[in-house]
């Protein structure tokens, strides 16, 4: 079933703390289940992806986005003969480190940290969650995930320069991650690019005509759908169009990655790691379409004046709360205060804020920052 270039669970580099094998779940299945049962995973439900609940309560949040990424990733991985258990674990964990308020919250938290000479990065934060913050087991802190899942958390979307991150040396920063991890970044894009068009239309911030005019691949599929269903209502035409755009990206990613792997003639996960480039990729044509779509979303949705107010709120709330706890560390919960004995206070505050849901940070803001 598994391709020779897939990660085979029996060859896993294992866990930090050795554990007995489970009678009916392999190590990657257990890692997937550990992520699903983590507190940080449950909090994703109340974290903004792009839209807050002001617009509607049937829009994506971080949790439903995560489930969509897992679904797409499993489908693609199965077609490529990759390890679907590992892929599923990586997809479910991929956004675990995101702070409240979506991208605006992340930017604000990073800005607050930079004022202290530090920084915030959601992948590094996700690693801290699974390595340290989740407390479920009597014999160790964290979830004790396998090496391959921790490596994927760090390397799926970003190449961290080895020289700047000596603390991550064990994750082989000078090598590519396995295809299972490489996939996640691209399926993440497929998921949010299409979902944001959908939610953007539902929020009346985008119109179908506007997308069809500005995004060539969407326009092309929209014409086809209108010919096929001349009397269908607009929303269903939109759905049919989006489905085609989505399928095109998924199909292309499968076929193009399969071809690149064949051309590269790699036959082991070590060869994937040592190959000079990532082999999971769209074809140049679909890559350009993806770029177009992404640029459109930036210009017309993510930077739209309609979302400006919420972004400003996010920056103000994160910034003011951070500053408050810097001045009044005694207002932090006891377990966080105690940690400040071993780690810099800004990092403690950053970890605390990053873990919060949108409703909880609002509540904290009301408590400490409202006169
Ligand atoms: Mg994501």
Task: Describe the structure in your own words.
This protein has 371 residues and is mostly helical. The protein is 62% helix and 0% strand. The longest helix is centred in the C-terminal third of the chain and has 31 residues, at 234-264. It is globular, with a radius of gyration of 22 Å. The chain starts with 26 loop residues before the first helix and ends with a helix. 41% of the residues are buried. The mean pLDDT is 95. Bound molecules: magnesium ion. Residues 65, 69, 94-95, 188 line the site of magnesium ion.
Please outline the helices and strands:
Elements: H1 27-36, H2 39-43, H3 62-80, H4 84-93, H5 102-114, H6 122-133, H7 147-155, H8 179-202, H9 208-214, H10 216-228, H11 234-264, H12 269-274, H13 284-302, H14 305-327, H15 334-339, H16 345-355, H17 358-369
Helix pairs in contact: 1-4, 3-4, 3-8, 3-11, 4-7, 4-8, 5-14, 5-16, 6-7, 8-11, 8-13, 9-10, 10-11, 14-16, 14-17
Magnesium ion (MG) is lined by residues 65, 69, 94-95, 188.
